[in-house]
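hey so i finally got around to running the thing on that chain from the lab meeting. sorry it took forever, my laptop kept dying and i had to restart like 3 times. anyway pasting the input first so we r on the same page abt which one it is
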Amino acid sequence: MRLILLLLPIFLISDNSTTRDSFLSDIEYGKMLYNNPRGIPCSKCHGKRGKGGHKIAKYYDKYGNPKLLKGSNITKYSLKELKDSLSNRFKNRQNHRIVRHRIMPIYYLTDEEIRAIYLYLKGNKK
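ok and heres what got predicted. didnt touch it at all, straight out
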């Protein structure tokens, strides 16, 4: 019995079923992924609630003027925009391709994981 209880978390993690079949809600799963995806947390740049504005780096332009690189607000992204941005297919309002985020890490998230993060951001509007 003890062995079954020890292996149960491994089985739940490796299961490919949707989060609706698990003990976590989609929003809780999204929060978990947002704060610990695979590497650098989304919250590091986009803030606790995805509203951005966090200083990522200070740099100087070619004229020596100081500049701040800040995380963007991702709370208004549609699910498609969030998926596109995370997979380097993001387009601006005029439907022109934007160059890959130069500092945005690539996380290789599944559609289900991106959807969970999206639901977390939409449900986290405090």
